[in-house]
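dumping this here so i dont lose it
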């Protein structure tokens, strides 16, 4: 099994980051995507506060993130627009059709990534297992399946 790719966001040159780096594990780019392309472990359930560190990673490596989609009720607040570093991301909230344990990122060029969202209050060991499993190219599990496999401690 290949090790997951862990990326950390960085501040613009000469400017310190005002938020901590994203905790992110991605499938290796040489493997076809599964139901999820990796996992993100935000520090809080405040999407507006957390999204900038995540989009920094994708903006730098995969193209500018312009939209996100998530299941309605997955986050306490569901804003339509979210300011991030240098631009604004539009949010779409679905009542069906999206796994409630994932967030979908869209970048310029119509690329998309579905990421398992590891609950912010997860124990470090459980979060590490979930992130590793979500980034494992041999596994083809949905976010809900990954969470169920981890059990109630996730």
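and the seq i came up w/
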């Amino acid at each position: 099994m290949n090790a997951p790719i862990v990326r950390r966001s960085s501040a613009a040159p000469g400017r310190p980051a005002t938020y901590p780096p994203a905790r992110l594990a991605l499938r290796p780019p040489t493997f076809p995507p599964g139901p999820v392309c990796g996992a993100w472990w935000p520090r809080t359930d405040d999407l507006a506060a957390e999204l900038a560190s995540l989009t920094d990673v994708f903006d730098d490596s995969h193209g500018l993130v312009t939209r996100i989609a998530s299941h309605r009720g997955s986050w306490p607040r569901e804003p339509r627009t979210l300011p991030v570093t240098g631009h604004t991301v539009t949010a779409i909230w679905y009542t069906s059709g999206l796994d409630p344990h994932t967030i979908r990122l869209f970048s310029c060029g119509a690329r998309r990534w579905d990421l398992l969202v590891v609950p912010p209050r997860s124990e470090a060991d459980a979060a590490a297992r979930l992130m590793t499993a979500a980034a494992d190219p041999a596994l083809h599990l949905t976010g809900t399946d990954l969470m169920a496999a981890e059990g109630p401690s996730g």
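Residues 36-134 form one domain.
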